[in-house]
Amino acid sequence: MTNPTPPSGASLRGAVDLTALVQRQQAGAQPTGAHAPASADRIVVETDDASFGQVLELSRTLPVVVAVWASWSQPSQQLLAALERLVRAREGRLVLAAADADRSPQLVQALQVQSVPTVVALVAGQPVPLFAGEQPDDVISQLFDQLLELGAQHGAAGRIEAGDDDGAGANDAPEEPPLPPLHQEAYDAIERRDYDAAAAAYRTAIAQDPRDALAVAGLAQVSLLGRLAGKTLDSIRQAAAAAPDDLAAQLDVADLDVSGGHVEDAFDRLLTIFPDLDSDGRTTVRERLVELFEIVGTDDPRVAAARRRLASLLY
C-alpha cells in the first residue's frame, strides 16, 4: 500500500498521458467490456475501456474519482463502499467512476495500475494519482477536499444532481452505431465472463475477414483474460519465483505484467529466456509476444523495440 499523495494545488501533475488511450477508442479499438458509465444516478457510475473517454470529458466539468477494483479483491469492495459514501457526501461536486480491472486492461495500462484497488482522480482531463490500497475515511476525506480545491483552480468546479438527466454527465454521449454481429456476440460473452465463447466469436470474425484488426486485437485481449481468470497476483508471482525454468509460469507473469501496465517488464522477461529455450519453447514465446503486441498496440514504441529485439534473436 502506498502513502496517499495530496493533490497539488499549483498544477496538475498526472502520472501518465491518457491521450493515447482515448485516441485508440476514437479510432475504434476493440474494448474488452460492454459497460458504459451508467447507474441509478450520475454521481456513482461504471467505466471501462470503451467508455473511459466520456468519463475523461466529464472531468472537465467537475473532478472524477476513478477507482480501479476487482471482484475477487475483498479490499476493493470495501474501499468502493467507503468511496461511494464519501463521494455522495460532497453532494454532486465529485463523481465516482468504478473500473473493473479485469474488464479494462487498456485503462489499467494507461493509469499504470500496479495493484487493486487503486484510486486516481481526473481533473480537467488530467490524471492525479491519489493512493493504492485501503485508506481511513479521514484521509480520503482530506484528499477529496483538496481535490475540490484543485478542481476550482482549473475550472472544473461544476455540480450535478443525482437524478438530473438534463445536466452534463457521462451519459450524454451520442448513441454509438451497433456492433457487427460477431463482435456483439463477443461482447455479450465477455459480460458473462465466458472468455472461451468470446474468443470463438472473434475467431469466426477473423475467419470471415482476416483483415478485421479489431477482432484480432479483441481475440488477444480475451485470450489474456481467460488465461488469468481464477489466478491471483500472489500465486502467479510465487510460482514464477519458485520455478524460474518453468515456461508456463513465466508466461503467466508476462500476462500479469501486461494487464497491470508493466509492458516493458513483460517483454524483457520473455525475450531474456528466449535464447535458452528449445524450438517448441521459442515458438510458444514468439506466439505469446505477438498476442501481447496486439494488446499493447502495434504502434506503441515499446512494441517496436521488442519486435526489433525478437528479430535479432530469431535471425
Descriptive account of the structure:
- It is a single chain.
- The chain has 315 residues and is α/β, with parallel strands linked by helices.
- The chain has two domains: 19-172, Glutaredoxin, CATH 3.40.30; 181-314, Serine Threonine Protein Phosphatase 5, Tetratricopeptide repeat, CATH 1.25.40.
- The protein is 51% helix and 9% strand.
- The chain is built from 13 helices and five strands.
- It has helices spanning 19-26, 52-58, 74-88, 105-110, 137-153, 181-191, 195-208, 213-228, 233-242, 247-259, 263-273, 279-296, 301-314; strands spanning 44-47, 64-69, 95-100, 118-123, 126-132.
- A five-stranded mixed β-sheet has the order 1-3-2-4-5, with helices on both faces.
- Helix 11 packs parallel to helix 13.
- The longest helix is centred in the last third of the chain and has 18 residues, at 279-296.
List key phrases describing it.
Glutaredoxin, 5-stranded mixed sheet, Serine Threonine Protein Phosphatase 5, Tetratricopeptide repeat, globular, 2 domains, 51% helix, 315 residues, alpha/beta, 13 helices
Give me the secondary-structure topology.
Elements: H1 19-26, E1 44-47, H2 52-58, E2 64-69, H3 74-88, E3 95-100, H4 105-110, E4 118-123, E5 126-132, H5 137-153, H6 181-191, H7 195-208, H8 213-228, H9 233-242, H10 247-259, H11 263-273, H12 279-296, H13 301-314
Parallel strand pairs: 1-3, 2-3
Antiparallel strand pairs: 2-4, 4-5
Helix pairs in contact: 3-5, 6-7, 7-8, 8-12, 9-10, 10-11, 10-12, 11-13
Global outline: globular
Question: Radius of gyration, Cα only, in angstroms?
Answer: 20 Å
Instruction: Report strand %.
Output: 5-15%
| Low-confidence runs | 8-17, 19-40, 164-175
Number of helices: 13
CATH superfamily of the largest domain: Glutaredoxin
